[in-house]
Amino acid sequence: MIYQIPFIAVAGLILIGLYAVIFKRNLIKIVIGITLIESGVNLFLITLGYRQGSLAPIFTGNPNVDKAMSLPVPQALTLTSIVIGVAVLALMLSLIIHIYRHYGTLDVKKLAKKEADEE
Amino acid sequence: MSGMSKIVKTISNIAFPFVLIYGLYIIAHGHLTPGGGFQGGAVVASGCAMILVSYGSIWTMKKVKEKQLSILESAGAVSFIVLGFLGLVYGSIFFNNYLVGNDYLFGEVPAIKSTLANFNTAGILPLMNFAVGLKVIAGLFAIVLVMAYATSKKKGEIE
Amino acid sequence: MNFFESLLTHSPALIVAVPLLGAFLTPLISKINDKIRNAFVVFIVGLTGVLISMLSYDVLMNNKMHNYVFGGDSALIMPASGESFAVRIIFAVDGLNAFMIIIGAILAFVGVIYSWHFMKEHTGLDKYYTLVLLMIAGMLGMMLTGDMFNFFVFLEITSISSCALIAFYTNKGKSVLAGFKYIVISTIGALFILFAIALLYGQYNALNMAVLANSIQFNTFTDKIALVLLISGLGMKAGIVPMHMWLPDSYGQAPSSVTLILIGTTQAGLYALFRMVFTVFGRHITSPIELTIAGNNILAGTNLNSIVGIILVVLAILTMIIGVMMALKESDFKRMIAFAAVAEIGYMVLAIGAAFFTLSPSEITIEGVQVTFYSFSQAGQMAIKGGLFHIINDALDIGLLFLVAGAIYYVTKETSLNKLGGLARNMKFTTIFFIIGLLAVSGMPPMNGFASKLLIYESIYLINPILAIVAILCSILLLATFVKVLHSVFLGPKIPKFDEVKEVPASMLIGMGLIAIVIIFFGLFPNLILENIVQPAADALMNYSAYIGGSLL
Questions:
Q1: pLDDT per residue over C263-282, tens digit each?
Q2: What's the CATH number for A2-56+70-117?
């Protein structure tokens, strides 16, 4: 059962993130929801590489060198995904600064009304 | 935003070189231990963000102009792509690892199942780590600096 | 000859690496002078165009695949235990890839030439050109790669740089809001795709598309979840209803030269959808589906291709109808063309979805092993050819209409149809280009839209007559919409505010003229294009084993 806990955590994170993106009205909460989904997917990628009782995939002076090592490829994939997440987060927050400077509010319904009133 | 008190400025002055050395250690040993370009660059950038928070964004914007950061960032990116093109010239394929097996720079090949960590190995990987680390330091610091400076201006004062 | 042959061998990598090098050098070069930077960008895109034409000529004429392995000699490594893994990233170029990068080359070149004069009075232009070159590199990388995670990385590069370009006019609040909507939907779609890639990797330990296609067995539940997630994630990127909300906002608020390249990235998402469904899951596309509720199999007798076909056809009909209906009632010029673009995507998906119904498996025995082929019927093959031909036609037509809208905005600074009028006397060339685009979008001869739409109507009528009638009706409604725009913007009495407008500058006219010449050429000689360019692409799409065999050797 203890080996299933990361997968349960992945499902929980993605569902909470989807709930926050769809149902919340503040723009910052939507951004937090996207970050939660992305954390869930990264956790799923890392968990795929684990083998039971394995070492970290590094050459060191360890005497029991014949034990299995976990897969290094999912670690590289997760690192790339984290970097992409940082870039997207920086871009979304800069856009929120511009939106606040123009409209003065961060509520999704009030923004829709102000945008329709502009014409 | 304005800076913080004198105690905070002094302590961050003392702590910043240690953060810098630790981040550069992570970048340089990327082919031996967990780490590499992005992780070390993020550590150094958070050290720079500590300086930004303790001294205030207006003072930091005067000292560190944004154009210098842009030149550093472009230098890191250009050197990464040029290393890839040099693989086309010296090896025969793009991103080829042509420095493995030579004598003067990062060229040794460790034996199969050896257990010692040798810094002199792995070809062009440490050079690519340095290029990516430089770009990440300049890029992340520029993002944090511009966002802090932009929120300190009032509405209508964008220059 | 040796130089040209080595250039041809390395061209899949150079096509992506040269715009990337240009994008990183542009901030340094733009500190010298403005004109030098513009000339440098045009030179980089021109060089990429030359490489693309060399590569696609070789692939389409000689009917062979180009594989390029990064960092070594072959994609397989063989450790001492004897099994071989495919670890390196490869770029696999077959007929369909060569067809898509031709579209990317034309759109990128015209977009950069058009933006020479269109963006001349704006500030922040060094960042603009850097982002345009990054977007071109990402789009071409999406169309060339043969590795699933590499595709995800290029997808994110494209979506980040196009979001920053959509929000380019930061003094208008609407543009920034459109950019925010785009990045939220795009990131969620990309995360769905990454989840599906992780599922497939965990199951089969392979990221290479050819190795995955060789080893997928469709009998577990996670494979079906992966297929569903891939179709919905790629549908979000391609703008199929009900995931089309970002399309009118982002196409309408971006600068017009950026919209041209954005059309290319949307088509790249559509290409990836076809590649996943036809090639990666290709072996099992005719396998029977069972869904047992209370002990009975309620879906007995249906195969996977019928279910995927029904879903794609229903979504395509919805896309066409909603796109045309919303375009009729719009009063903003660029948003109306964006809704027409949504409707045109519906045509392509309708053709491919209807072709799915005509699949029939056949079993033959090769050397004692039973191999299942599937083959499309005559109508299905015609539908696939029509759908693929319509991709390039639609990109050119909608692109020309957006360039005309950009020219009107450059001259009059207005985009609302209620405030424009009577511009045909002063802007003769722009009016002619708009008439060419109007005829092409609604499928009138002698433009290229007629050839592809005729193929689609004929083949869909043979499959199911009602779908063809709906398609023809939507085409007629599109014609009505654009004739209304022609009358209100170009014909009619002159408005005194626009009395002294002049024709647009030279580079914008050259850009529009290039696309118009290609449209008329495709319209007058459709057989030439169909035999030489579309037929190899359709063959490559229908034959998944050629992709596996060609890229694993």
A1: 999 999 999 999 998 888 88
A2: 1.10.287.3510
